[in-house]
Amino acid sequence: MTDLIRIEDPADPRVQDYVSLTDVALRCRLDPRRGLYLAEGEKVIRRALGAGHRPRSLLLADRWLEPLAPLLTDVAAQGAPIYSGTDELLQRITGFHVHRGAIAAMHRPSPRPLVDLLRHARRVLVLEDVVDHTNVGAAFRSAAGIGADAVLVTPRCADPLYRRSVRVSMGTVFQVPWGRLERWPADVAALRAAGFTVAALALRPDAITLDELAARRVPRLALVLGTEGDGLTEAAIRGADVVVRIPMAGGVDSLNVAAAAAVALWAVRPG
């Protein structure tokens, strides 16, 4: 393969996209600034390619060259270089054992305007300040599997294209249209202007049950879920049209935010 480049030095500038992947704070700053994200594992990389995202390069261990040959051919066909090295070298570059075969540095797609995301949507999931990348990825997987039309994240929400979010979502973050709200909670007005009923999931005495919300058969519905621990902000709750709770048992007051997103999306799915 003429596009294959063997790396011998972990400081080789050609693989700088893959350096210190375990430094979350660093990568959350650098990746958006560089216009890239990382896709880990064959299935996730293929989903990224299938979504039309362009590869910058691909890095894999020597022992995966033959098993992943078809993937390498597809990446090389788009003009992206392919780097290989020993398992030990890849660990020195990335900071962890690359056990999923390969990592691709992908060009980050351009943000989609809110008006485009909402134009034909019926069910939208809004994540307010959810800071755990695992929860963000799990919420996207539920949105894809159950059928949300879009996911919106607030300014302080974790990056859906961070490596852990992408991995936990199994690449479904590439198939669900999403965007970052820049003026939250003022953007609630944009949701209403697009014809959405805004439902805030929160533990309030005046909250209706999820079953009651589902029975209303709201044509266009935005479900808003808050950060781990504290839940939704007061501003988000005040801006909502209705406050909703998931009835619980066993002395438990609430679900993990990603689990709550799955339950809520399933309950209000369009008939």
Describe what you observe in this structure:
- It is a single chain.
- By secondary structure, this protein is of the alpha/beta class.
- The protein folds into two domains: 4-107, Ribosomal protein L30/S12 (60s Ribosomal Protein L30, Chain: A); 114-267, Alpha/beta knot (3-Layer(aba) Sandwich), CATH 3.40.1280.
- Helix content is 34%, strand content 20%.
- The protein contains eleven helices and twelve strands.
Quick recap:
It contains 11 helices and 12 strands.
**Separation of the first and last Cα atoms:** 51 Å
Biggest beta-sheet profile: 7 strands, parallel
Total beta-strand segments: 12
Which sequence of strands runs across the widest sheet?
A: 8-7-6-11-9-12-10
Which architecture of the largest domain does the CATH hierarchy give at level 2? Answer: 3-Layer(aba) Sandwich
Helical/strand content category? alpha/beta
Q: State the shape.
A: elongated
- Number of contiguous helices: 11
Over all CA atoms, what is the radius of gyration? 20 Å
Keywords:
Alpha/beta knot, 271 residues, 2 domains, 11 helices, alpha/beta, 60s Ribosomal Protein L30, Chain: A
